[in-house]
Amino acid sequence: MTAPSGDTGLLAPGWAGSAAAAATSDEAYLRALLDAEAALTRAQAATGLAPAEAATAVTEAADAGAFDVGSLAGRARAGGNPVIPLVADLTKAVGEAYGPYVHRGATSQDIMDTATMLVAARTLDPVLADLGRTEQALSRLAAEHRDTAMPGRTLTQHAVPTTFGLKAAGWRSLVLDARDRMRAVRESLPAQLGGAAGTLAAFGAYGASDPAGLPEAYARELGLRAPDLPWHTLRTPIGDLAGCLAFTAGALGKVAADVLTLSRTEIAEVVEGSGGGSSAMPHKANPVRSTLIASAARRAPQLAATLYGAMAAEDERPAGAWHAEWEPLRDLLRLVGGAARDAAELARGLRVRPEAMREHLDLTHGSIVSERLSAELAPVLGRARAKELLTRLASEEQPLAQAPELADADLDPTHYTGSAGTLTDRALERR
């Protein structure tokens, strides 16, 4: 029997098979760790701290396929992180001549944090692409249904008419907000380099005339931002990641929550393009994409809370706070990556049913426009009497058109959508 793997996503259909799953796998983390180590030697070669041959040797040896992830995981227990056994294996692979240049001057957290930033960057890029696809699909829906009237609902009940275009424009606005936050975080992801206690002292000991310039060369090798300071216990990058990921999950969760409500059998104002089946009920077409997004939105805040809690990290390098970040951050990247993939599929396939929306506008026999009627009757009957009349008619479930006082009133709910069309147009101007 082969050893079980906890990295397949068997219980995580929300992210299994996604780009985020590949970008955050154990193998992907190993590749990022090796990329960080190789870049460090190249940066030292570029600044005169190592021979060019050492940079070439370390880069060639840093091939993820040549290392045993399972062995590294098992040996990581001894020192509390996977960098320590990896450095030993990489040094051996490089060979005696240039092995001493592996990891020289760095600390384990330098490599682990830098690898985490690489993994985050490699995950956020496809997430941003999926958010772009979602935005485009929602833009089309909003424009197409700019004037498609439907019941607005507040506290689960019919309120006043709105339009599906305005609802879709609102969804799109949230997606754009998430995109903007994520872009800013993606562009700010920094390399980490500080040495044992964040002073870069070891690099000076190895001959660097200006150790403070080394992080910039290191970041350049990796395509990350150069840090202003070593951030071993200054966890702004992790806090920013937690925030943008949790926000994105919530933004997509709002879309999913609305679709789940509107696609109920008894409402059926929208339908997922390709619903999922049931193991027991052949007639069902479940809103699976929305379900998986909603699941991610419920888990993301707690994962972000763990990352925020880890910001209270003591001293120059912490015991436990840094370690507590690894798993929840990976889970958060995966959840949001899967949710973004599902959101793009959901938005592109969503089917809108204007006929159901029109039918539901008439369920309250005209009461859905009672706000307008109240305003129109107030000058004639007085505000209190107008409200009393409309409240009584609504409680009796009598069609308002039959009330003598409303004989000449415009009861068509499609005529009372306010500035929904203008607001939709304004929202769609945002790029």
TrEMBL record:
Gene3D superfamilies membership: Fumarase/aspartase (C-terminal domain), Fumarase/aspartase (Central domain), Fumarase/aspartase (N-terminal domain)
Example GO BP: 3,4-dihydroxybenzoate catabolic process
Organism domain of life: Bacteria
Keyword Kinase: no
Classification via SMART domains: ADSL_C (SM00998)
SUPFAM superfamilies named among the record's database cross-references: L-aspartase-like
GO molecular function: isomerase activity; lyase activity
PROSITE patterns documented for this protein: FUMARATE_LYASES
Positions of the UniProt region annotated as Disordered: 400-431
Keywords: Isomerase, Lyase
UniProt domain Adenylosuccinate lyase C-terminal: residue ranges: 365-428
Family (UniProt): Belongs to the class-II fumarase/aspartase family.
Name recorded for this polypeptide: 3-carboxy-cis,cis-muconate cycloisomerase
Taxonomic source organism: Streptomyces hawaiiensis
Higher taxonomy: Bacteria, Bacillati, Actinomycetota, Actinomycetes, Kitasatosporales
